[in-house]
Amino acid sequence: MSSSNKKEGLLEMKKDLVLVVEDEVEIGDLVKDYLLSEGFEVLIATDGEEGIRLFHKSKPTLIVLDIMLPGLDGIEVLRMIRKESTAPVLMMTAKKSETDKIIGLGIGADDYITKPFSPRELVARIKAQLRRYKYYGDPSEGRHTLSFNELEIDEKGFTVMLAGEDVNLSAKEFQLLKFMATYPGQVFSKSQLYDQIWGYNHYGDLNTVTVYIRKIREKIEPDPAEPIYIKTVWGVGYKFDGSA
Questions:
Q1: pTM of the full structure
Q2: Which residue would you say has higher pLDDT here, 105 or 130?
Q3: Nearest to residue 20, comparing CAs of 70, 72, 55, 71?
Q4: In CATH, which of 3.40.640.10, 3.40.50.2300, 3.40.1000.10, 3.40.50.1580 is domain 14-136?
Q5: Same topology for domains 14-136 and 145-240, yes or no?
């Protein structure tokens, strides 16, 4: 085999690395076994501090993060991750409160799953998140920049700029903004937006869309209370105003 073919083979064999931050050893080991059987590389952290350390050291492709952790909890770990990475984060929670789930999603989580859960469902959700992340972050030549007055959405670079300044969006925030900006003037219901970004077979709270819209507005609107880009169409949903 030529050296170029060997190099191509090594690139093809590169695996996605999943960091699992879970203090219950049995759950962590179970998740690891299932992910290894599906061809992933896996690292396990049993508390928040170790999770952050491994995150900085290994730069994982995706993070599975428990909310309830000893010491540094999952919400704080997520905040720290989101300061420097848009890698997908799937949160695990044993709580039934929808408030906890929305809080997690509102600060940048991409998905959540409630304990007890099926390991196969977890793996399926991880694969779905990676497909979406790689698609929206694909630096292919077909991507371009969407420009609206002072707002620029770089589909190729997976970045957003407002008046020449970088806007730090999570992966899901970027996907939602990019999708709406691709169809300026078109009104989408919360259900349509949820299905497009999170998947029609994903079971969750439609208020997640409301939380994400609010977060995006706080980052791109001159006055979030009087938005010029993402507008509410009362009784219907939301639209992106391309004439802003």
A1: 0.60
A2: 130
A3: 55
A4: 3.40.50.2300
A5: no
